[in-house]
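Appendix B, example 12.
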Amino acid sequence: MDIPWVEKYRPRRFRDIVGNNKAINEILRWAQDWERGKPRYKALVLVGKPGCGKTTVAKVLAEEMGWGVIELNASDIRNEQKIKEIALRGAVYETFTDDGEFISSKKGGRKLIIFDEADNLYEGVKDGDRGGKKAIAETIKNTRQPIILIGNDYYSLFSGTWGKALKSLAYVIRFKALTRAQIMKVLKRICMAEGIKCQDTALAYIAGRSGGDLRAAINDLQALAQGKKILTEDDLGATGYRDVKNEIYKSTLVVLHTEHFWEAKNALTNLDETPDYVLFWIEENMPLEYTKPEDLVRAYEYLSRADVYLGRVKRRQQYALWAYAMDMIAGVSVGKEEKYKQHARRYQFPSWLSQMSRSKKVRGIRDSLGMKLGRIYHTSKNEVLDNVIQEFSVLYDKDEGVRRLYTSILHLNEDEISYLTEKDPKEILNELKK
């Protein structure tokens, strides 16, 4: 069975971790306070979106400090009795690590108690179980060992009476979602290790769609690239990504109508799209909204600056410049002298992207025909496309016998038939069935 790449390439040292340097430094200072026997807080709470590295950092900390690890999960253990049986016992008494190694606190041995998905802790009685937050608070008060709580939802973890108690006992460290550039760096590293050649645009797309979740991006990469030597943009459809047309529509509406730069920037920051794609949407629909020429001039000036940054990204592969490009696109919002009260009833999909999509489809049809005819003519696809297909299409269009024969033996589909003749492809296929 193949090892999940998330585990296979999980960092083992801090130097291998990407992002959240400030949070990591705070955690290291806390660990050093424990080593000196003078921790101000006995527990840490790591909060942040999924996939930003919270659990990985906790495990790497134990590895770097030479501490044992006791790892618990709130999805399995979240009521008071179970926590007292496991967490409190491990925090107060001598115990063994998960590997069976005995750790003596009297001899200075440390064990890190990691409580993952802590935001799933019960506050009070629920489904017959008494709340786990109370037990965790008591554990922190009495612990002789460092404790790290990990959760995604800050407010869920600290809600209620015992949630407030937890907050007073532990130091909270927030983790930020990773940027596209940071995620791409990891994805490139994995591709190199797996011997996969991957287009930067494909990696950028995967990274952008992850929403800052490195784990999700790695899983998508494995689903797309495992067993392949080359990964291109054409392979991206296999991930089943959601339709984001409604999201880009809403963000375009905000940028073109708000008078506040920060509002436009927030709309684009929360949009999981690359700057070049966003730029096409703004550029296409801006003339529908901005009726004053001077407003259009200023708005296009911002877009031109964004395009400069995007050009540098393409030439130098410096994806950190994407942030500056997004800021320039958001600047369109302050290009107008006053807010437009009316807005276009319906925004248009960027015409340039539509043309590229159609031309890409045509190239795909040509390539398919080239390969099919190449097998019959015992020649290469390129040879067919350069010297054969034009004359063949004339013969196919004029001669019914040739048309019936080659439609059958080449298993031509409607798109391929439409490319070769102006006749109705459905009628041709129906004739073959008779």
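The chain has four domains: 20-174, 180-239, 245-349, 353-433. Residues 20-174 form a domain with the Rossmann fold fold (CATH 3.40.50.300).
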